[in-house]
Write a structure and sequence with these properties.
single chain; 237 residues; mainly alpha; Vanadium-containing Chloroperoxidase, domain 1; disordered N terminus; phosphatidate phosphatase activity; membrane; PAP2/HPO_sf; transmembrane helix; PAP-like
Length: 237
Amino acid sequence: MRKALLWFVFCTTALSAKLNTSDYLMDGITEAFTSSQNLTLLGTAAVSIFALRNYDDDIQRYSQKHGLMSNTLSHQLDLYGGRWAYPALLGLAMLKSGTRDEKMDRLLFSSSAIGVTMMTTIVIKKATGRLRPNGENRRSFPSGHTSGSFAVAAVVDELYGEKAGAPAFLIAGLVGVHRIHDNEHWLTDVIAGAALGTIVGRGFAAAYRTANNDDSSRLVPERHSRPIMVRLVIPIH
C-alpha cells in the first residue's frame, strides 16, 4: 500500500503574548484522561482490544478476500482521514458566526484537540512498534487516521451539536473500516484510535466550555495585545 504522510499546519494565526496556552493544554489533557466518562470509554476500549486481539488475523484475511467497501469509497475516506478533515475543521471554526475572540477560541480548541491527538498517537506508535498487517512498517497501533477523525468528530459535536456530530462520528467510523479494508491496520488498532480521538476531543471540549464560562480566563487575548504566530506541523500515517 502507498505510504501516506500528512504535514498539517494546525494553526497559523495571531494569538496574544499574554495567552497562557500551557494551562489550557494541561486542562484539556487532564480532562481527557481523568474524567469518569472518558475513563469508562478507555476501559471499554481496553477490554474490547484484549477480547478481540485474537480475531485480528481472521478479520484481516476476510477483509482482504471479500473487501469491506468499494475501493472508490475507501480512497475518499483515506483523503478525509489523512488530509482534508483537519483544515476543513479549522475553516468551519472560523466561519461559524461570532466575535473575533470567539472565533479565536474555537480555533485554539480545534487545533489543540487535533494536535494533542496526533502527538499522543505518534508517541504510542513508537512505544508499541506493532507491525502493520501489510508488513510495511511498525507504526500500526493505534490508527492515526482513525484517532484524528474521531477527534474531529468530537470537536464538531461540541461546536455544532449532535445533528452535525452524529454524522461526523459515522464518517470517523467509516474511516476506521477503510483502514482495515486497505490492509493498513488491524481491527484493534482502529478501536484504540477511535477511543483515543474521542477522549482527547471530549477532554478539550470540556476545557473549552470551562474557559468560555469563566470570563477571567478567556482563551484569546484582548485585541491590543502583542500577537505571536503559532505554527504546528505534525506528520501522521
